[in-house]
What does this fold into?
Amino acid sequence: MQKSLLQPVSGRDGYEIRIHAKGDRFVVWVGKLTARQFREYERHVGSIVDSFKVGASPEPETIVWFDSVPERIREKFVSWGMLPAVQRRVVKPEQRTVEGWTRLFIDELAALWRTKNNYEQARTWLLKSVDGKRDIASVTQGDLKRWQTSMSKLALTTRNKHVKRVKTMFAGAVEDGILSSSPAAILKEEKSVKRIDRSRQYFVDEATTAKVLRKLPDTNWKLIFCLMRFQGLRRHEVFAIDWKHVDWETNELTVPAETKTGWRTMPIFPETLQYLRDRQEIARDGEKVVAWVGSQESLTQRLRRHVADICGQCWPKVCQQLRSTRRTELDAEFPPHVVNEWLGHDSTTAERHYQQVTPEHLSRAAMMRTVPEDRLCTASCTAEPHRTAEKSGSQTQVATRPKTKKPLRITHWMATDYQGLKVRYPRKGLKNCEKCRELVVSWLTVVTPVVTTCHQGIRTTQKPPHCW
It folds into this structure.
């Protein structure tokens, strides 16, 4: 039986590693070990010694395991030539903790303040579940899975964004040699099984827009409102526009490259053009299109107060809903690829976050007939040839007469939903006229119902076909 590489030391409470290889003797003190730790040391140290004797590279699993042992022991194996040297970033001991590393990563992040603020929020949620004083190498995959579960009260999109940012911070530790592998790599974004929540969408109609524009305090505020409502600009894009980005000859507006989606060109819509000219007349030298002192968040807060004073209350997500309204309007007039180019997002993003169902869509659907009235039902489709046999001598004469139409008896009703409204149609009573039934059912389920009374006194939807 092969002698164990870990031997107890007389007079000391613990173990030391004793290796005899290539004519040399290598010894390093380990200390106290549990039974499980003892087995792990024996397995991985034995693996690396076997590789060293034959001149082969250590197993990847063994290299990863050595990252979890004390740095003193690992450096010994590196000095003996059994482990490859790793280029590690030199950081202070307090920066190797979860709290210290995440703080160092965010401080060194070359990004806008808005992006850093998003990372701060992800860090705050991480430290609620994982002790910030722990060494970052001691964080396990189970710790991070439990952290992901602890964010259940947040919206799905917010949880997924926090997961992506935490994975980026741990990946940065791997790149700097502080970790050999990222425990956050196992985290996956959650997929929604529900429909998109549109409860906070709000369509800023023409009347509301005119009312707000009429009562905003000055030209600068009116231009800000128009740039978001009619040009569909994001909040930070409003502040990035300069006068050199306005082409008065072609009535085109260029969104500069330093914005979120980069450089793009869009038309200056007539609703915006007059306010843009009024603002140019009073602009001072060196001023941008929008004159503003303060942060972007203060714009949202002040615009919300203005709208609340004018309309009584402000709609949710005041800036985003202006952009969402414009996307919905432009989709009705221009192809999707054109609107995508103007507003700076793709069709998938528009469908999930911007496009809305408006009252105009419902009213137009109520006036639309998808099946012509003359196709709903005809007398010929309800008439069935009826054959009677009359014996006359040795010959049989067959007479055909139309079947007498009986009043329709509706015994059961089927129901369906259309745009949140109940539509009813009979389940039985049309079984002798399959073609007619199909047409009637499709007709009743695609229009907004208007309750009427048929000739039998039964309350139904729309004017019933004559076969009823």
Residues 204 and 210 are 10 Å apart (CA to CA). The mean pLDDT is 79.
